[in-house]
């Protein structure tokens, strides 16, 4: 059957795969280097805004509210509060953690910015807002300037934080 | 009603700042690169972020290889309390056009425009391939230098230019760059010497290529009372337009730039004499094409800053042309200047801005 939309009888082209790969270097900058080097020492390092006094972890070198450089390095506690969370039940390609698992925003004591962490050593139905957690680090020999140095967070055993103490960070 | 491209409400380039252009800034992230530039552009006219009503930026995530870098870059300004903000995935010259349009409408009186480009973090020649049509061209991975070389070859074949002229443009640019402390590449080499450079992609020798540059720039635009309050000698935008050509390189005559010619006509380049032109022609041969499209004669001083052959931070080099042209007027070296910006492969998109002193 004559069909001028086909090429050599193989039918029309319906899809086209054009693989693209680009490699990039990453420049963390002065402020994020403080954070990353802290992780290599098993410490959370942030920076304080000289104007509003807020502590960002990790800091990108400026206060996003005031637009001024954050120059004072601040070491933060190893413990914090779960401000919000989600339980992951959906499998996806490249998943390295067994489902279900808990992903949470953790506000470290002394910080004014929460960041995402994995919560382990607790049944998924017991996670809650306000839960106090502590960071569990990899063995000292395995510490690197990367968030991979933090294995996960687990309940610290302290009583839950008062809602008022973290409601600003939801 | 005013014709398209001409100013309805006078808007001035109130302030301009740029980072020291470098081959690679390993020390700072994007926010840290931008903060001193933003501080300078406000500081030189004694204002703060609270004095601008609108912010517009130009950048592309493709250079950094990370998503939403333009959102994080806003941390360099500090947008609290919240204000109107926009971004273009274009050179900052187009961000300036968007801000200028808003000022034309009279809803705001002052705007901050900034742009940044980390050209050094990946393979720039390959990254720029991704701006091509994704079905027919990009999968073949023609890199940006090779495409520019095809254009240069076509220009030589047309009889409009020569390798010697490319070398003369490079020699003039880098000599002028000696007087520009922010330039990345400067030097005094003769045309004969340059013509002994090796080809990168024939017929383009090393000197006809722009440097790979990390950089950032910022401009404050002001209208009405603020324009006069912030400057004794305001530099006014009197015409502004941008045009683009088809993305299909095979459908274009690469030896001419009808989009530049149209933008120049609409912006009123020929309504008066032109003292200085800052042309964003990253490759030496492209200056020949743009100069012809702008209709500039030999009396016009081209790229006194050294132009993009002296520093070519992606996404910023066009905005820098506008800033440099404005500085020539502010310093009294020029009364009327033209700034040009380009984007896309082989001069696909072009913007023309006419500036005049008070």
Summarize the structure.
The complex is a heterodimer of chains A (170) and B (358). Chain A is mostly beta strands and 170 residues long. Chain A contains one helix and eight strands, in the order H-E-E-E-E-E-E-E-E.
Describe the structure.
The complex is a heterodimer of chains A (170) and B (358). With 170 residues, chain A is mostly beta strands. Chain A has two domains: 27-76, no CATH class; 77-170, OB fold (Dihydrolipoamide Acetyltransferase, E2P) (Beta Barrel). Chain A has one helix and eight strands. Chain B is α/β, with parallel strands linked by helices and 358 residues long. Chain B has two domains: 6-122 and 212-229, Peroxisomal Thiolase, Chain A, domain 1; 124-210 and 236-356, Peroxisomal Thiolase, Chain A, domain 1 (3-Layer(aba) Sandwich). Chain B has helices at 30-43, 69-73, 92-105, 124-127, 144-157, 163-176, 191-194, 224-229, 258-267, 284-294, 317-330, and strands spanning 6-18, 54-58, 84-88, 110-118, 199-201, 204-205, 214-223, 236-244, 276-278, 301-302, 336-343, 349-356. In chain B, helix 3 (92-105) packs across helix 11 (317-330), helix 6 crosses helix 10 and helix 9 (258-267) packs across helix 10. Chain B is globular. The two termini of chain B are 23 Å apart. Chain A binds chain B through residues 16, 18, 20, 22-32, 60-69, and chain B through 25-32, 35, 38, 49, 62, 64-66, 72, 74-80, 118, 120-123, 126-127, 130, 134-135, 138-139.
